[in-house]
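User: Sequence in, structure out. Go.
Assistant: Echoing your sequence, followed by the structure tokens.
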Amino acid sequence: MPVVIDHRPNRTPAAPAPRRDPAPSRLTYRLQRMWLTPLYRRVVRVGLPAFVLAMVAGLWMADEDRRVRVTEAIASVVTQIQSREEFQVRMMTIEGASPVVDRALRAMLPVDLPASSFEIDLPALRLQVMQLDAVESIDLRIRPGGILSAVVKEREPAILWRHARGIEILDGGGHRVASVTSREVRPDLPLISGEGADRATAEALALFDAAGPILPRVRGLVRRGERRWDLVLDHDQRILLPATGAVTALEAVIALDRAEDMLGRDIAVVDLRHPSRPVLRLGVDARNTIRQARGLPLLGPDGRVLPETES
């Protein structure tokens, strides 16, 4: 029987390989924990690339010639866009304005037309126009076709106010509209005077309305102590009105005048400052008639006793 000889080298059995520990290393664990933090992820994904780009751009823009070229290129692009035909404003239309306000508005335009709409700051122009006393409101907008439209609402003159600095026209709210040199410029407007009268314009207009039956005789209202009114009539007559309830007191005087023709008599002052105790002050002629009947010396036009003449 043949003998089989095994020429393979003798091998010792290999030792079993050590089992791999599935737990991460300490460094890996810390990195994984950091990656789970939202702020860290944003920094890595966004902040780091942005920093790199900013650093590269900063290094590139450090050269002055490059900065100048970039600035000029941007300015050129902006100019080309703003100069396009669809952005050009070629005319201005103004509605509701008097000739004086119309000229003032056109003079306030920051640029000469035609001009780019980007050169016209509408909010700033609106604030500038509102500085005009005669303008109550204005609607500014750029319409298609290159038209700058201005719709103006002017203040309605309602009353004249005479004070130490001159005469001004006020609207119903007491806001200044314009100045005039004399009352004859606007004889159709009622007149008030005195310091603080402009702050009581609404009450003054109500008094003028209540004085309708005697309005042709009314010369104006005088503010006293910034708290009450004197109604001045022709023939130097005055009605002293109370600080409160002035309209009611005036209506009572007008009703009495209709019944008794009180204001047609020689009465200089109707004092209603205390409505419960009205006082009438007679005129000089009426007082002289009474004094003559009593044998007393007569009064002069200034209310003083005339010296007795020697016979």
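User: And one key feature?
Assistant: The longest strand covers residues 135-143.
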